[in-house]
């Protein structure tokens, strides 16, 4: 457990000497001593994926307000935590999302029109093509973590070097699923990278009302799993911690738990109103720490981006998303019998009778 921690000469905080990693601050200033080995192309790729995620998100919120999709969970403010981590996965690795990883899912090959289908209640949007190694969205909080650990164990038993990356929120760490999964992962040393996107609010419940622990990262102590807390709005901190965690998993050294400290800038979902439980001042403070302008400012300073480039990128991403919306909305509605056809591999007698009834046969 100590090897992962000792490899990063970072400030220690909390009761359990939890390492906290920040490399790029909200003004785009860099601590070059901690900078990971990352190419200019990778930085540009990550920023582009974050812009696509934000554009998808902004459009989804508008579509929901117009009644064109159903309840939607925004990712605004959390793009760095999910993009800079999932970017490092190889093609044969797996990603296991909860319900707020649209940017990461698109980066892994899920087409945006399929995600719009899903958010409009069409489960065919979760029927990914072969080779897109992403599990379906898991709305029940924390239930995907045992799935991810089980998948990682299966890969290990097969002698594969593939890695499973699992995302969940701070609220999931208060669920039994989380602790059962971490216990199993620690015992069997499965090749999993478990990333908690701590956006500080589980709907209206703040982290302070969920746990007495000073950090969520330290919850891995009991399971003998290496852990670290990173600035989840800092692309380079997320990238560095995740890269080492993936390498550990691929080398057979077992799981890692990463707490990405970030913030949800929007409502929990479009069925929520954050003004009922948090202050305008708090949201404004975290808006200044938005991961997209932070990385943009760094790229402008380094000459990796111009304002003209940036403007064109946002325009191009909007065009891509607009085309995805049109494709989703042009998709033919499912047939009534599909409700029955995809429930079981072979219909039960009871369902056969219900199907005949429903179709008037």
End-to-end C-alpha gap: 63 Å
Helix percent reads 40-55%
**Rounded radius of gyration (Å):** 21 Å
By DSSP, the count of extended strands is: 9
Classify the secondary structure makeup into a structural class: alpha/beta
Q: Low-confidence runs (pLDDT<50, min 5 residues)?
A: none
Notes on the structure:
The chain has 361 residues and is α/β, with parallel strands linked by helices. It folds into two domains: 2-330, Thiamin diphosphate (ThDP)-binding fold, Pyr/PP domains (Rossmann fold); 336-361, no CATH class. It has 14 helices and nine strands. It has helices at 2-6, 40-65, 79-86, 102-107, 112-119, 144-157, 176-188, 207-210, 235-250, 280-287, 291-302, 307-329, 338-341, 349-359; strands at residues 11-13, 18-21, 94-96, 164-169, 192-198, 201-202, 205-206, 227-231, 256-261. The strands form two sheets. The chain has a seven-stranded mixed β-sheet, sandwiched between helices. The chain has a two-stranded antiparallel sheet with strand order 6-7. Helix 2 (40-65) crosses helix 3 (79-86), helix 2 (40-65) crosses helix 12 (307-329) and helix 5 (112-119) packs across helix 12. The model has no long low-confidence stretch (mean pLDDT 94).
């Amino acid at each position: 457990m100590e090897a992962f921690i000792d490899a990063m000469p970072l400030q220690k905080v909390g009761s359990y000497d939890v390492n906290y990693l920040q490399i790029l601050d909200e003004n785009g200033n860099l601590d070059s001593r901690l900078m990971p080995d990352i190419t200019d192309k990778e930085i540009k790729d990550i920023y582009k994926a974050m812009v696509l995620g934000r554009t998808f998100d902004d459009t989804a919120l508008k579509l929901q307000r117009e009644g064109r999709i159903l309840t939607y969970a925004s990712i605004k403010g959390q793009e760095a935590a999910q993009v800079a981590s999932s970017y490092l996965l190889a093609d044969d690795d797996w990603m296991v999302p909860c319900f707020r990883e649209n940017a990461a899912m698109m980066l892994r090959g899920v087409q945006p029109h399929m995600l719009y289908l899903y958010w409009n209640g069409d489960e065919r949007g979760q029927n990914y093509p072969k080779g897109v190694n992403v599990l379906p969205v898991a709305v029940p909080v924390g239930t995907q973590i045992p799935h991810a650990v089980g998948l990682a164990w299966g890969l290990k038993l097969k002698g594969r070097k593939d890695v499973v990356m699992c995302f969940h929120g701070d609220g999931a760490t208060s669920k039994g699923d989380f602790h059962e999964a971490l216990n199993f992962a620690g015992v069997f040393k499965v090749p999993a990278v478990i990333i908690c996107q701590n956006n500080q609010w589980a709907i209206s419940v703040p982290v302070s009302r969920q746990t007495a622990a000073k950090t969520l990262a330290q919850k891995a102590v009991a399971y003998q799993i290496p852990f670290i807390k990173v600035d989840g709005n800092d692309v380079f901190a997320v990238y560095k911690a995740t890269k080492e965690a993936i390498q550990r998993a691929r080398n057979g050294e077992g799981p890692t738990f990463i707490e990405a400290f970030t913030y949800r800038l929007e409502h929990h979902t479009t069925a929520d109103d954050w003004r009922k439980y948090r202050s305008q001042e708090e949201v404004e403070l975290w808006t200044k720490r938005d991961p997209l302008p932070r990385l943009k400012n760094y790229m402008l300073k380094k000459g990796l981006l111009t304002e003209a480039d940036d403007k064109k990128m946002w325009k191009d991403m909007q065009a891509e998303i607009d085309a995805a919306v049109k494709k989703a909305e042009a998709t033919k509605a499912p047939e009534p019998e599909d409700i029955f056809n995809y429930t079981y591999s072979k219909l039960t007698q009871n369902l056969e009778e219900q199907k005949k009834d429903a179709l008037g046969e």
